[in-house]
Amino acid sequence: MITAITFTPALDLASGKLEGNRRGVGTAGVWLLHALLPSTGMAQETVVEVSTWTALHPLTDWIGTGIFHTAVDYTPTGSGDTATQWIAVCTLLLVSLVVATVWSVLDRRRPAYVRLYEWFRLVLRMALASALLLYGMVKLLPSQMAFSLERLVEPFGDMSPMMTLWAQTAGSERYEMALGAAEITAGLLLIVPLTAGLGAVLSFIVALQVLLLNLTYDVPVKLFSFQLLAFATVLAAPEILRIVKASIGHALAPRTPEPLLTTPHGNRIMLAGQLILGLWLLVTAANEGHEAWQTYGNARPQSPLYGIWNVTDFTLSGQQLPALTDFTDTPANSPATPQRFRRHLPRLPLDPAHPLLPLNHPGYTEISIKFPSRSRQ
After folding, report:
1. Vertex 58 angle, CA 80 and 29, to 5°
2. What's the first-to-final CA gap in the chain, in angstroms?
3. What is the value of pTM for the model shown?
4. Torsion region of 322: left, alpha or beta (phi above 0 gives left; psi -120 to 50 gives alpha)
5. CB under 8 Å to 276, separation ≥6 — which residues?
6. Crossing angle for the helix pair 173-191 and 196-216, nearest 10 degrees?
């Protein structure tokens, strides 16, 4: 998902109106398009193709190879900080700068774009809300940071900073759900025009915290989280300044945003459209979040043997194989480091055709699993 926000037009933060020169072109609409396309049932290949062209595909390829000497690969990955992402954003920044400069020269006599600014804020609101609702939902239904048994037997020193953050968050399901609830609340507030100001301030706080974690724990989504913060900053700036002025005793008149359309009937239709779009984004995020929760989140299917087991015997095709590590002098249930290398973590349902023979002993549990002769386990 690639987008950019560049050179936002100078504005009077107290009134929220555009003033002076026109230095900005925001492409949050592209981001919103990327969020909406999958929910229409469009094939994933088509979504990727559209995303490639909205990243200014031919020009980005030329800039990547000609300036940065890097081949551009649009294959989707789990990382948001790939070289392709950075090159695409650089391309969008350059194009935005050129368009903004030409626009400013051709329309230099016009002092402000008051109504256009409100449309700009509307697109920003919906784009930001779509991201917050989705990322909030995969935390409220824990799947983004799903609990993993491997972390309990992995030495702390072997964990990357990102894995440390993931394990810490997943260790408390309630904490992860609270983070998700904050993001969802901010997204819902952004959708409704009457509460959009409060939603913008909450979004700024949430996005700042996310970016800080990504920077300090080296999570490869820094570019995406910076874009979240950029969107939230543009939306929240007028509200934050008003809050500061009110807190030091300044009297402030109610903010009256410019109507999106010129007729009351048209504005009522626009309000209904915003609410319908917001509901669509919420339902889509809830569906994706629930699917992730059931597939690889905390609600995923678990083996009847779910847990951490110490392997005491290993038999293949009727022949007992020696252990790779000698544990004869290690007390049962000892936290000694070598034990970690004999532990088995069955998580997925096993084939019921293969009998399981549990053997209980005082103080600990052994389990023997009969595998077919062709098994390599």
Report:
1. 55
2. 40
3. 0.77
4. beta
5. none
6. 140
